[in-house]
Each structure stands twice: as C-alpha cells, then as structure tokens.
Amino acid sequence: MTNPQTSLPRLSTLTGDYVLDTAGTRIGFIARHAPGTRVRGRFDEFAGHARLDGNLSTLSVEVLIQAASVRTGNPQRDEHLRHHFLDAGAYPVI
Taking a C-beta distance cutoff of 8 angstroms, is the pair 70, 78 a contact? Predict the structure, then answer.
C-alpha cells in the first residue's frame, strides 16, 4: 500500500498558468427555499484561470461567472434570480 502523501507532487513542480476546463467543470449551488426544500442550480457560462509559482502566498485564482447563465430547471425562478437576486443587468459578471 502506498502512502498518499508521498505520491502527491510537490507544489514547486506545479508552477505555471492553468485554465479552467469549462467542458469538465460545473459551478453549482444548493439553496434552502423553505423548511425541508432545497433548490439546486448551476451557472452555464464561466471561465477561470490560476497562476502557481511555488509559493502559496502569491497564488492567484480568478473565476468569472456570467450571472445571466443561472439555471435551476424552473424558467420563472431563473428570471427572478437574474433580475431580483443577482441583478444581472447591473452586475453581469460575478
């Protein structure tokens, strides 16, 4: 049996610029709507990148989410979230 800590790469070997794979990534959420009720949703349009230089104190990560791309499976709820909760017109990017 191998020790998982010995199989992890050192941070210094992971240096470089990375781009979020949007095809293989999902940004989702779960919100409580009423006692015992949960609403699941996701954002369909987003992008992101990270820069690692071997020093955690200078690690940088940026994720940009298009607020209007929110989806919960309920078009009426989605419109309410876009206009009243997220105010996607005034703040198109999260």
Answer: yes
76 Cβ neighbours under 8 A, 6+ residues apart: none
What share of the chain in percent tops pLDDT 90? 67
For residues 74 and 41, give the distance between their C-alpha atoms in angstroms, rounded to a whole number: 10
SS3 94: coil
Q: Write down the pTM of the prediction.
A: 0.77
Measured CA to CA, the distance from residue 50 to residue 38 in angstroms comes to: 32
Tokens of 86: 């997220």
Q: What is the DSSP string of 15-77?
A: -EEEE--GGG--EEEEEEEETTEEEEEEES-EEEEEEE-S-GGG-EEEEEEBGGGEE-S-HHH
